Amino acid sequence: MGRTRVTLADVAAASGVSVTTASLVLTGRARELRISEDAERRVRSTAQELGYRRGVLVSGPRPGPSRTIGFVLDTVTSSGLAGEVVKGAVEAAYRHGFMLFAGETGGDPGLERSLVEAMRDRRADGIVLATTHTRAIAVPERLHHGPAVLLNATAGARSAIPSVVSDEEQGGRSAARLLVDAGHRQGVHLIGAGPGSYDVPPHSIAAVQRLIGLREVFAVAGVEVVSAHRCPRWTPEDGYDATRQLLRHHLPKALVCFDDRLAFGAYQALGEAGLSVPGDVSVLGFDDHPVASWMRPRLTTIAMPHHELGVQAVEVLVEMLGRRGRGTRPPLIRRVPMPVREGGSVARPQP
C-alpha cells in the first residue's frame, strides 16, 4: 500500500492555522501579508516534518468538490458586527456540510486579491467576498473564475456575481412608519443625509436607499421634512455638530439619524440644549450599532441584519453550487429585511 499523500489541509491542521494562512506561508507571502513569525515557523517546520510538497494539489485532473467555502472580509472578524456576519455564515455552511475558511484583509486591496487567489488555488468550492459598509466595489479578477457571492456589496462594474445586501429601502420605510404611527407630521429633520436622493456621503448606497424609503412613506402621510443635514462621515462628532447647527434655527419634534453613531451625538447636543428624548424630541437611528443599547433611553433603531446576511450569503452560494452546469442562476441581488429594534426614543409629539 502506497504512502498517503500529505495535503495542505493536513499541514494547516497540524500547525494550528487556517488553510489560507498555511498557503500564504508556503507561497512566500507571510511577511508581505503580516502573518506572525511564530505561525510562519510552525507551518514551515510542520510541512517539512510531514513531507508536504507544494503543487501536488494543483497537478493532475481536478478532484470532486472540496466541501469548503472561502470567506474574505475587509475587517477583523473579532469585532462585534463582523463577528455576527461570520457566525451566520459558519452556521449556514455547517448545516449544508461545508467547512468555512475566513480571511481578513484590513481593507488592503492587494491582500484581498491574494486571499481570493489562495482560496481558488486551494480549490474552495465557492467564495464569499464581504464588506463592512454597503458599497460598490471593484471585483478581483479571480472571483469570476468560479462560484462567488458579494456580501454587503455590489459590483462597481457590470458583473454576473450575485449580491446579498440589507433591504435599505424597506428599512427607510420602516423608520418613516415608526414616526408616522407615533403621530409625527411636523418638525421632522434628517441628520446624516438628504434631502435630495444623492445628497449623501460618498459611495453610500445605504443612504440613498434609506432616503428613498423614507420619502415614499412621508409623501403618502403628508409629512414634510423641515431640514436635512448631510454629514460626510457618520460619527458621533458629526451628529453632535449637525444637531447643534439645526437647533440654532429650529425646535425639532423628531430626528431621523442615518446611523446610530450620529444619533449618539444628537443625544448630546439635545441634552446640552435642555431638551429631553423622547419628551421633547423623538430620535430614530439605523444599524443597531452596539452604542444604541448604551444610550438612555435606549435608541429605537432599524437594525442591520448582520447574522442573517452571513446566513443568506452562504445559502445563495450553495444554491449556485447545486445549479452548476444547469445554466440557471439565482437573482443578482437578494435583499435581507432590516428588523426594528424598539427602544424608548420615539414617542407622540407634545403639543
UniProtKB/TrEMBL annotation:
<dbReference type="InterPro" id="IPR000843">
    <property type="entry name" value="HTH_LacI"/>
</dbReference>
<keyword id="KW-0238">DNA-binding</keyword>
<dbReference type="InterPro" id="IPR028082">
    <property type="entry name" value="Peripla_BP_I"/>
</dbReference>
<keyword id="KW-0678">Repressor</keyword>
<dbReference type="InterPro" id="IPR010982">
    <property type="entry name" value="Lambda_DNA-bd_dom_sf"/>
</dbReference>
<dbReference type="GO" id="GO:0003700">
    <property type="term" value="F:DNA-binding transcription factor activity"/>
</dbReference>
<dbReference type="Pfam" id="PF00532">
    <property type="entry name" value="Peripla_BP_1"/>
</dbReference>
<keyword id="KW-0804">Transcription</keyword>
<feature type="region of interest" description="Disordered">
    <location>
        <begin position="329"/>
        <end position="351"/>
    </location>
</feature>
<protein>
    <submittedName>
        <fullName>LacI family transcriptional regulator</fullName>
    </submittedName>
</protein>
<dbReference type="GO" id="GO:0000976">
    <property type="term" value="F:transcription cis-regulatory region binding"/>
</dbReference>
<dbReference type="InterPro" id="IPR001761">
    <property type="entry name" value="Peripla_BP/Lac1_sug-bd_dom"/>
</dbReference>
<keyword id="KW-0805">Transcription regulation</keyword>
<feature type="domain" description="HTH lacI-type">
    <location>
        <begin position="6"/>
        <end position="59"/>
    </location>
</feature>
<dbReference type="Pfam" id="PF00356">
    <property type="entry name" value="LacI"/>
</dbReference>
